From TrEMBL:
It comes from the Eukaryota. PROSITE patterns: EF_HAND_2. Residues 68-95 form the EF-hand domain. This is Selenoprotein N. The keyword Magnesium does not apply. GO terms for cellular component: endoplasmic reticulum membrane. One of its GO terms (biological process) is calcium ion homeostasis. One of its GO terms (molecular function) is calcium ion binding. InterPro entries: EF_hand_dom (IPR002048). The chain crosses the membrane at residues 25-45. It comes from Scleropages formosus. Keywords: Membrane, Transmembrane, Transmembrane helix.
């Protein structure tokens, strides 16, 4: 995003004759204005001109037309530069953007290739919350991209084995169980989020290329960099032999289902996961499988816009996608081979009058391996460092706390802590993954997080009732005795307000201990945990 913004600034330099009178009157204005007023005056002048242009645009194009225009106007100056016009030029001229910039070696005619097939069943519309009221108030055009997406865009394709080298581990991660970023996340709490108001994915670079081509088999507009965290792709060595790796992977990506003139509609599966079994030099791929897990009752987040700008209203819903997967039909094979006499034979056709060539593959004996579950857990911790401490299901956490005589550190949320939803994001990306908080949680607490809905369904449990009594929307952090009594709690919004306002003001009433951390939210959270321990002292010392 930073790159896009800075080029937008460059493009914002005055262009053409339209602006010259503006410049002249601006100079006159500057000469007249007193120095301290210049900045204010200029800002006012600019926003007044922008407002004028917006009104002119509205008159000329109407609301929908202006929206279309604005979606191309990346620097928001209400002029289109040639660069900004490019997507339209490509569309009208039928040129495709340069999606495939493969390196030479990928086209090695002696290299092996494999066939990958795509399968999907469309989203079950009746699982969306909005279906309960018959999609009342949802305009037809919002859902058009979703409704018309019934099958993979590309049911089958041939890919060179070499391209899968993007899934190979870096040189310093060659042990079974090692996890690494294939596509690193570029988002954090300081960079903010990528804009919603986009239709075309940016051209993929480097290791993104193969992931982009694979996901393009489902839909032509995959975004390899999601707008929100978690972002990126992680790999983990599940098994290794002398010549082969079995690499597990987890990818967070999303699709833009609508195109102009409809407003954007984002389709974000919980994750894409799977494995690729390949030789250490990526000349041969034995197995490849990629899929969206369907073992939960809901596995897709959807967000769509109701207007022209970033600040427009957004609708959010969730739903169930029964199937979305890619699978290799078999191991990769060379297209051309040489027979004993040195003749080149096309392996699909066979030798003189023969049948297609039958290949025999050596058996792989793993020297070392871990389970698929363990590989999944390691990738999860790479995406979510807060999971370095274990988060147990609600009732289990209280049992464990009872046995170990610890406090339960419990987070009660409206939306899930480890999905893409907004409520858990801020917490997860700050305090819960800071190392002092991780250390204290690990040492003195049993952690758990639950959805309000889940606890309401547990109504018989008095533990759940005691929890719900203290809950306030959207997220409440609680510290409870093993018998369910909540000794301390804090609302996430209150917590964030607090830490935003006062950086390092230790009132010293209870603990001077927490003063040393640089990050105010970390020290405030540590203090919260310490206060809970203090309040539970009697119980803990029994
Ligand atoms: C938690 O504590 C255990 C043992 O006390 C230790 O082995 C482990 O590394 C700790 N984990 C974290 C995330 O601090
Ligand atoms: C839980 O235990 C504490 C301390 O032992 C006690 O004060 C409290 O009343 C108990 N709460 C319930 C709900 O039993």
């Amino acid at each position: 995003m930073a790159a896009a913004r800075s080029s937008a600034v460059e493009n914002g330099a005055p262009r053409g004759s339209i602006r010259r009178p503006l410049l002249r009157s601006l100079i006159r204005f500057l000469l007249l204005a007193a120095a301290p007023l210049v900045a204010v005056g200029f800002a006012w002048y600019r926003s007044a001109r922008l407002e004028e242009r917006r009104e002119a645009g509205l008159r000329a194009l109407g609301a929908e037309g202006l929206f279309l225009f604005s979606s191309l106007d990346t620097d928001r100056d209400l002029y289109l530069s040639p660069e900004e016009f490019k997507p339209i030029a490509e569309k009208l001229a039928g040129l495709s953007p340069p999606a495939e910039f493969e390196e030479e070696e990928d086209r090695d005619p002696n290299g092996e290739t494999l066939t990958v097939e795509a399968r999907m069943q469309p989203l079950r519309m009746d699982t969306m919350t909005k279906s309960k009221d018959g999609f009342l108030g949802v305009t037809h055009s919002s859902l058009s991209g979703l409704r018309s997406w019934k099958s993979p865009a590309v049911p089958s394709t041939v890919i060179s084995a070499r391209q899968f080298r993007a899934f190979l581990p870096p040189k310093d991660k060659l042990d079974v169980g090692d996890a690494w970023w294939i596509v690193p996340s570029e988002l954090n709490i300081f960079t903010g989020y990528l804009p919603n108001n986009r239709y075309q994915p940016p051209p993929p670079r480097g290791k993104e290329v193969i992931i982009h081509s694979l996901l393009s088999m489902f839909h032509p507009r995959p975004f390899i960099k999601t707008r929100f965290a978690p972002q990126g792709a992680v790999g983990c060595i599940r098994a290794a032999s002398e010549y082969y790796f079995d690499i597990a992977f987890r990818i967070h990506a999303e699709f833009q289902l609508n195109d102009v003139p409809d407003f954007p509609f984002w389709f974000t599966p919980g994750q894409f996961t799977g494995h690729v079994l390949l030789s250490r030099d990526a000349s041969h791929v034995r197995e490849f499988h990629l899929y969206v897990p369907n073992d939960r009752s809901l596995n897709v987040d959807m967000e769509w816009l109701y207007g022209a700008s970033e600040s427009s209203n957004m609708e959010v819903d969730i739903g169930y996608l029964p199937q979305m997967e890619l699978q290799a039909t078999g191991p990769s094979v060379p297209t051309f081979i040489h027979d004993e006499e040195g003749n080149v034979i096309d392996s699909r056709v066979g030798g003189a009058g023969g049948d297609p060539v039958q290949f025999v593959f050596e058996e792989i004996h793993w020297k070392s391996e871990i389970s698929r579950e363990e590989a999944a857990r390691r990738m999860e911790v790479t995406f979510y460092p807060f999971k370095k401490v274990e988060y147990l299901p609600f009732s289990e956490a209280f049992d464990r706390a009872q046995a170990e005589k610890k406090l339960v550190h419990s987070i009660l949320l409206w939306g899930a802590l480890d999905d893409q939803s907004c409520s858990g994001r801020t917490l997860r990306e700050t305090v819960l993954e800071s190392s002092p908080v991780l250390a204290l949680l690990n040492q003195s607490f049993i952690s758990s997080w639950s959805l309000v809905k889940e606890l309401e369904d547990l109504q018989v449990s008095h533990l759940a009732a005691l929890h719900l009594e203290k809950y306030n929307f959207p997220v409440e952090m609680m510290l409870a005795l093993p018998n369910g009594t909540v000794v301390h709690h804090i609302n996430a919004n209150y917590f964030l307000d607090q830490t935003a306002m006062k950086p390092e003001e230790d009132d010293g009433t209870m603990f001077s201990f927490s003063g040393g951390f640089e990050d105010p939210s970390t020290s405030t959270y540590i203090r919260f945990l310490q206060e809970g321990l203090e309040k539970a002292k009697e119980y803990l010392e029994q």
